[in-house]
UniProtKB/TrEMBL annotation:
Gene3D superfamilies: Ribonuclease Inhibitor (3.80.10.10). It comes from Microtus ochrogaster. This is PRAME family member 12. One of its GO terms (cellular component) is cytoplasm. Keywords: Leucine-rich repeat, Repeat. SUPFAM superfamilies: RNI-like. It comes from the Eukaryota.
Length: 578
């Protein structure tokens, strides 16, 4: 018995010694911290005394150092990070105002132990990591550490009430959050949650299935994803609904890869989608159901959709309906942009009748539209509150101006910007539009470039637009009295024939030939300008193509710094790409 009592006393003594040693170490650390604080305060007091002396002595020459003096906060953060174990153990008691500067310092100096621990006790609803790092390979290790910390939170069956983190935001925003540390600015970390709440107010959000969401903006390109994005997709695989995306840009024709990524995303949070690659109509139709799941979508941009030649009218109509029917689900769509869409002519009403809410922006550019398409626009309830209308590149030369006039009258109370560049509107057509145009009282910008206009009609046009008090920008081509409407039509027909030949077979046009040289200077100039623009656009499209035989599928076109080039250079560049 005596032996047992002696052993117990010995164990108790050693525990007490260990306890007191721990207290002594903690006390020592706190003493060091207090000493640093005291020294800083003494320096501040000494500095104030020197300033008072300077004021008393009056003006004199002073040498100043522009090197910023560390603040008390930064010195405290650096002192805390000298002992990572102490920093981690004290996180529970750390004031929330100190979390952003401590996290930023740990991030900068790659104190991964502290970062991982801080993620688990982050006191704000949102951790805006994207404001500190880019999704590049150099940040891969940091991203892995952060996601490891998130894993620990997700693996907890019971979510502790002390854990406030709801959003890990990897988008390149919220940079101001990291430049402040206290007061109202610290609430910037909840910006994402506030935005989400606003969206919920308009009914676009559904109740989150996960207690935590990860947000990212994505751009799907032909080349492989970078290391960070690849790791994130691997990490999120199997965790349905965890990854949200607000902005998605697609510039690849790899359908399988697109579908794989879309399957991983919670599409309820999608707000902006941009498709800028040469898809076939069948590809668009096959991906349309995913678009229908994007119930929060506000902005949709689609460009360069083509139709294979061997397709029946019935099959074409079926594919178009598969796409347009998805607009029934887009209750919050505000901006719609359609550029170079080959199936749109005669089919616009299929899309318009599926719009659920009024649009703010409608852009239909470089498309062929029929008179019936313009009539369907005037009858669509979804365009009656338009603020921005862009019809540039839609050829209206042979179309009755009445539907466009009715359209302008319909949106006159709300329209702010109107773009009719290169619509080839004739004087007689413009004359019919003038009363409707002058009724657009909110108009601020009007683009009428690359349309033929006489001096007399330009004067009338300016008289009408002068009544628009909000109009601040007007753009017109130089008027010409030297050719009448018939001559202009002949010139446009000649130009269009050459353009079509050029687009289908660039090698067939010889700008050194007598036929080309005999053209009027203004026609040659316009053709060469269009060739240059087409070459630029073609280069952009080729950049989205995968590499062939290990070599890039496009070469740079030789344009000067001012964007100019000769027609021969344009043709030569195209021949190289072919």
């Amino acid at each position: 018995m005596e032996t047992e009592e002696m052993e117990a006393n010995s164990n108790g003594t050693s525990l007490a010694v260990s306890f007191f040693k721990g207290e002594e170490e903690l006390s020592s650390q706190m003493s060091s911290f207090n000493e640093v604080t005291t020294q800083i305060r003494e320096l501040e007091e000494r500095g104030m005394e020197e300033l008072r002396e300077i004021k008393q002595q009056g003006p004199r020459s002073i040498k100043m150092s522009f090197q910023a003096t560390p603040t008390l906060l930064h010195l405290a953060v650096r002192s805390l990070l000298r002992n990572e174990a102490l920093a981690v153990s004290g996180l529970q008691d750390l004031p929330m105002e100190l979390f952003p500067p401590l996290f930023k310092e740990a991030f900068t100096h790659k104190r991964f132990v502290v970062l991982k621990a801080m993620v688990q006790v982050w006191p704000f609803p949102c951790l805006p990591l994207g404001g500190l790092m880019k999704m590049k390979a150099s940040y891969l290790e940091t991203l892995q550490i952060i996601l490891d910390g998130i894993n620990i939170l997700l693996d907890q069956k019971v979510h502790p009430s002390s854990h406030k983190l709801r959003v890990l935001d990897l988008r390149a925003m919220h940079k101001d959050f990291w430049n402040v540390w206290a007061g109202d600015e610290a609430a910037a970390g909840s910006l994402e949650v506030k935005r989400k709440k606003k969206t919920q107010d308009r009914g676009a959000r559904v109740v989150a299935k996960q207690s935590l969401k990860v947000f990212i903006d994505m751009c799907l390109k032909p080349k492989a994803l970078d290391a960070c994005m690849s790791y994130l997709l691997l990490w999120v695989e199997g965790r349905t609904g965890l990854l949200g995306c607000k902005k998605l840009k697609i510039s690849t024709i790899a359908l399988r890869n697109i579908v794989k990524v879309l399957e991983m995303l919670d599409l309820d949070y999608m707000e902006e989608v941009e498709v800028c690659c040469t898809w076939k109509l069948s590809t668009l139709a096959s991906l349309a159901p995913y678009m229908g799941q994007m119930r929060s979508l506000r902005k949709f941009l689609l460009s360069h959709i083509c139709i294979p030649v061997p397709i029946s009218l019935k099959e074409k109509g079926k594919l178009i309906d598969q796409f347009t029917s998805q607009f029934h689900n887009l209750e919050y769509l505000r901006e719609l942009s359609l550029d170079s869409i080959s199936f749109l002519e005669g089919q616009l009403d299929r899309l318009l009748r599926c719009l659920k809410v009024p649009l703010e922006t409608l852009s239909i550019t470089d498309c062929q539209l029929s008179e019936s398409d313009l009539k369907s626009l005037t009858q669509c309830p979804g365009i009656r509150q338009l603020k921005h209308l862009d019809l540039s590149g839609v050829i209206l030369t042979n179309i009755n101006p009445k539907p466009l006039r009715v359209l302008l009258e319909t949106v006159a109370a709300t329209l702010k910007t109107l773009d009719l560049e290169n619509c080839r509107i004739m004087d007689s057509q413009l004359s019919a539009l003038l009363p409707a145009l002058s009724s657009c009282s909110q108009l601020t910008t009007f683009n009428y470039l690359r349309n033929p206009i006489s001096v007399a009609l330009l004067e009338r046009l300016l008289c009408h637009t002068a009544r628009l008090s909000r109009l601040t920008l007007e753009m017109y081509s130089t008027p010409s009295e030297e050719e009448d409407e018939k001559q202009w039509r002949e010139r446009m027909d000649q130009k269009q024939a050459l353009q079509e030949e050029f687009f289908h077979n660039p090698q067939a046009i010889d700008i050194e030939s007598e036929d080309f040289s005999s053209l009027p200077p203004e026609v040659k100039h316009e053709i060469l300008t269009d060739m240059k623009e087409f070459t630029k656009r073609r280069r952009t499209l080729f950049e989205a193509m995968p590499e062939v035989d290990g070599s890039a599928a496009i070469r740079e076109t030789p344009f000067a710094e001012d964007g100019s080039s000769t027609g021969a250079e344009c043709l030569q560049a195209l021949k190289k790409t072919d």
